[in-house]
Amino acid sequence: MLCFLSSIYIIYNNLSKKDAVVLEAKAWLSHHTRMKIVTWNVNSLNVRLPHVLAFLESEQPDVLALQETKTIDANFPFEAINAAGYQVIFAGQKTYNGVAILSRNEAIDPVFDVPDLDDPQRRLLAATVDGVRIINIYIPNGQAVGSDKFVYKMSWLKAFRQYLQSELAVHPKLVVLGDYNIAPADLDIHDPDRWVEKIMCSTPEREWFQSLLEFGLSDAIRQLHPDQAMHSWWDYRMNAFRRHWGIRIDHLLVSSAMQAVDGGIATSYRALERPSDHAPVWVKFEDADISQ
After folding, report:
1. How many domains are contained in the chain?
2. Within this chain, do residues 115 and 147 fall inside the same structural domain, yes or no?
3. Do residues 182 and 139 lie in contact, with contact meaning Cβ atoms separated by under 8 Å?
């Protein structure tokens, strides 16, 4: 690296100041990668496609992970997405669930379900984009603590955690993003007292979330905004969005090689006509020095 910097210094002395600045910028970019990665539960892609296309045009993400596309693969609107300048891979089913990864560059080595989990529900889609392993998940809601659907949720979480461990072993640059259906802390809830031990806020769910952090992953939004109350989902009922009755259940957990430099929740998309009940959650990353 010292030799590399010395070469820049020698060239710099023979260039105008303007040209030298350009050269330094290009040299820096050649050794670093910047990516904007977004997760969004769209709650029906057929209904929300105009919103997605507007988001792609306005926000220009490098990767957009969608959940609850709620469409079979034969009906997926890939042509409209391609026309917007994005490639897409998807795994869908009728009426429920469904996940997709939209990316500027090709997504390779896809995985379409949690390995060794006998489950017809399309809740996971993983692929590598620009050297970063993207794992897009739509975790079961669980309905109510103690219900059969809660048992299913916890079994799904157990199987997914095992799969994630294997992915971390081979992918140092990794982002696990999506609708977790878990609010990890009281700060993520508009009124914590109303949600004590309720679904998405129960102790077993939060302990599972914490176990992922113990793998060495970081909650990218909380890294950037450690003390700010932020929400990503608002119930359609009771005018919850206008009352700010929300919770943060959409997350990007990232490996240490992914350095978050900016991020937030695009709540304006929840205020659109016929919106999803979730807002896009976005993070910009400055990758570690790829010359190392």
Report:
1. 2
2. yes
3. yes
- 26 and 38 in a common domain: no
Give all strands of the β-sheet with 174-179 in edge-to-edge order.
107-111, 124-129, 132-138, 174-179, 250-254, 218-219
AA letter at 97:
N
CA dihedral 155, 175, 245, 278 (to 10 degrees): -90
Residue 87 forms beta bridges with which residues? 103
Catalytic amino acids? 138, 179
Angle at 9 between CA 5 and CA 13, to 5 degrees: 170
Q: Is the pTM of this model over 0.85?
A: yes
Query: Which token pair is 22?
Result: 């350009």
Q: Which two tokens stand for residue 153?
A: 């949720």
Residues with Cβ within 8 Å of 18's Cβ and at least 6 positions away in sequence, in order, are none
Helix (H) or strand (E) holding 29, with range, is helix 17-31
Q: What is the pLDDT of residues 273-288, one digit of tens each?
A: 999 999 999 999 996 4
